[in-house]
Amino acid sequence: MSSTRRHVTILIIGSGIAGCTAALTLADAGRDVLLINAGPDLDDGNTPLAQGGIIYKAADTPRDAEARALEHDILVAGHRYNNNRAVRFLCRQGPDCVDNVLIERAGVDFDRNEDGTYNLTREGGHGAHRILHKADYSGRALMDGLAAQVKIHPRITCLHNHSAIDLLTTHHHAKNSQYRYSVTNRCLGAYVLNAETGEPETILADWTVLATGGVGQVFLHSTNAPGCVGAGISMAFRAGVELANLEFMQFHPTALYEERSYRRPLITEAMRGEGARLLDDRGDAFMLRHDKRGDLAPRDVVAQAMVEEMLRRGVPCLYLDVSGVKQDLPTRFPTVFNQCLEIGIDIRKEPIPVVPAAHYFCGGILTDTFGRTSMPGLYAIGECACTGLHGANRLASTSLLEAAVWGQSCGQHLARITASGREAIPRALAAAIPDWRHEGNEHHDDPALVAQDWANIRNTMWNYVGISRTASRLHRAFDDLRALSRHLHDFYKNTAISKPIVDLFHGCQAAYSITQSALRNPRSLGCHHRIN
Ligand code: SIN
Fold it and tell me: Which of 269, 230, 517, 246 has the alpha carbon at shortest distance from 395?
């Protein structure tokens, strides 16, 4: 078999907390795993950017009572649009998963108090201090712990600089009509672009797990890593896999505002949990005018209140006053402290200019508690999946926990069903899947053209499919993105495949699908805020 064609038992696409947890769970159970990701190392996604932390359990509260209290907070933040089964699953499995996978297996050393107990913090929408953190670089600490274990595991093969182009399925790819007409459309792996050689590769996989992360980069302002362009939902859509809740894009209230830059680093909500307050340009605290929970209202409420205030005052940003935070700022919030200092703001002396930015995708590929999708052979976990946990709006610090719990559950499930060692894809079917046909000989991936297409997508999504949506804005976005999608297909028809082109197609498809869902849902709820 050539190096551009291989057949593996388990292919995991994406290497954040979800992908790494699933890989380790499987490998520890004795299964061989191929883990691919688009970046040069494992940490190219959103996981290492997470600041706040991961939900654990409130101190001195009986386990059942704490699980019920957390369920309540998740349901309130999600406007009770949540999948109750997923909520219960997370609240019951969460603490053990954190203990077993993150603390014991990955060795993550969360911050402790002087008496040795965990230092638990709080964020918007939480009724208790129950969030574990490592200063304000919790995601980085988790990522480093997991990545170190993944890299040394003899049963995990990692391929970096490999971007998934499309899923392989029986109906779309088998050359043999016997398979094309079978009633079951099964996932058979993926076509993948090796960015080092520039060659597309065929990875046949008995079981494929999508852990491709978020989609925030289709919006002009986003806290997401550069690669978060919605690859998973885009490929799943093209393969005909069931998607859900795509209209629910969560905007984080506080990203750092820099006048001359589109960079929008996160300013963790844990700062408000520790006493910071939002102010307008005159120094007035405004959140209590919008919600009795004030600065600790759930994110959808705070982001929408901020947009209203910015429009009312005609200002491009608001301010986070951190003078009420009791801890030493450079020690407790070193990431925020340093990124502000880099642009000349000393947060010990002045408030932080902030704006809302696209942050977390509550929708995605519909899955059950094992990460199974509607397509046999295909699983999805982490941000690209929609378990229904978040409903219409995600509660802070649930995302890392969801990724770990579902990564573990998916890994355990796949370990069980692969125990017999039998191949799930018959040899004849594998042989019926052709390699990628590399016909293009034009070179249209001119960076100027690609940059302009991205600018169109991001401006359209921010202005028409952003924090507040109207029917006419959504119709404009729908028409514009449909036209762009057609144009991209015509224009790049004969262009040789490349990473910028793969990302552009994923981004355009993801933006179009989000817009379509937003247009179809006239009801304002949670982070889908329809003015009319
Ligand atoms: C934050 O630190 O505010 C982000 C954490 C999260 O998105 O849950």
Answer: 269
- Rounded to the nearest angstrom, the distance between the alpha carbon of 51 and the centre of ligand 1 is 6
- Select from 518, 510, 216 the least CA-distant residue to 357: 216
217-232 tens-digit pLDDT: 999 999 999 999 999 9
In this predicted structure, the answer to whether residue 418 has a pLDDT above a threshold of 70 is yes
Stated as kind and residue range, the H or E segment containing 67 is: helix 63-77
| Per annotation, catalytic residue among 122, 277, 299, 332 | 299
Q: Ligand 1 within 6 A of 269 CB? A: yes
- Can 299 be counted among the known catalytic residues? yes
Tens of pLDDT along 47-80? 999 999 999 999 999 999 999 999 999 999 999 9
**3-class SS at 230?**
coil
- Cα 138 to ligand 1 centroid, rounded to whole Å: 10
Closest listed residue to residue 382, CA positions, set 363, 413, 366, 406: 406
**Contact 399 CB / ligand 1 (< 6 Å):** yes
Q: What are the backbone dihedrals phi and psi of residue 412, each rounded to the nearest 5 degrees, phi first?
A: -65, -40
Task: Examine the pLDDT at 1 and tell me if it is beyond 50.
Answer: no
Determine the Cα–Cα distance for residues 234 and 504; give it in Å rounded to an integer: 11
> Going by C-beta distance under 8 Å and a sequence separation of 6 or more, which residues neighbour residue 49?
139, 140, 223, 224, 225, 266
Structure tokens, 498:
């490349």
**Among 74, 397, 401, which residue has the most ligand 1 atoms within 8 Å of its CB, making it the best to mutate?**
397
Q: CB of 396 closer than 6 A to ligand 1?
A: yes
> In this predicted model, what pLDDT tens digit does every residue of 305-315 receive, in sequence order?
999 999 999 99
13 and 399 Cβ atoms separated by less than 8 Å: no
Does residue 510 sit in helix, strand or coil? helix
DSSP letter, residue 495: B
Q: Is the dihedral of CA 318, 323, 328, 330 positive or negative?
A: positive
Cα(449)–Cα(504) distance, rounded to whole angstroms?
Answer: 11
CB distance 492 to 444 below 8 Å? yes
- CA-nearest residue for atom 8, ligand 1, is 397
| CA–CA separation, 40 and 21 (whole Å) | 19
pLDDT digits over 73-126, tens only?
999 999 999 999 999 999 999 999 999 999 999 999 999 999 999 999 999 999
Report the separation in Å between the CA atom of 354 and the middle of ligand 1, taken as the mean of its atom positions: 15
pTM: 0.96
pLDDT surpassing 70 at residue 197: yes
- pLDDT category, 2, cuts 50, 70, 90? low
